[in-house]
Amino acid sequence: MEIATKEGLEEVLKIVDETNLSTHLTDYHKMRRREGVLEVHEMLQQPCTSEDMRNQILRSRKKG
Fold first, then answer.
1. How many CB atoms sit inside 10 A of residue 9's CB?
2. Which tens digits make up the pLDDT trace of 16-40?
3. Which stretches of 1-64 are DSSP H helices?
4. pTM score
5. How confident is the model at residue 64, as a pLDDT?
6. What is the Cα–Cα distance from 18 to 10, expressed in whole angstroms?
7. Residue 64 · residue 32 · CB < 8 Å
8. For the segment 34-62, what is each residue's pLDDT rounded down to a tens digit?
9. Distance separating alpha carbons of residues 60 and 45, to the nearest angstrom
10. Under a CB-based contact definition with an 8 Å cutoff, are residues 34 and 16 in contact?
């Protein structure tokens, strides 16, 4: 499964949604899971190093 592709993204989001239904997470946490998947997909669309990606993830965690 390649999250960088549209099909891969849809498959991952489907898995996340199925997992969210089977857990006792709050709506906020469910939303954050989906946002995290979408952020990773977006980062994979842009040319960057793994260090750039790590820094971007850390910055987004500080915001939330």
1. 20
2. 999 988 888 899 999 999 998 998 8
3. 6-21, 27-44, 50-63
4. 0.65
5. 54
6. 12
7. yes
8. 998 998 888 888 877 888 878 877 887 77
9. 17
10. yes
DSSP state of 15: H
Say if residues 27 and 18 touch (Cβ distance below 8 Å): no
Only one residue has tokens 């790590």, namely: 54
Angle between helices 27-44 and 6-21 in degrees, nearest 10: 160
- In this predicted structure, what is the pLDDT of residue 1? 67
- Closest by Cα among 43, 56, 33 to 3: 43
Measure CA of the first residue to CA of the last residue in the chain; give whole Å.
Answer: 27
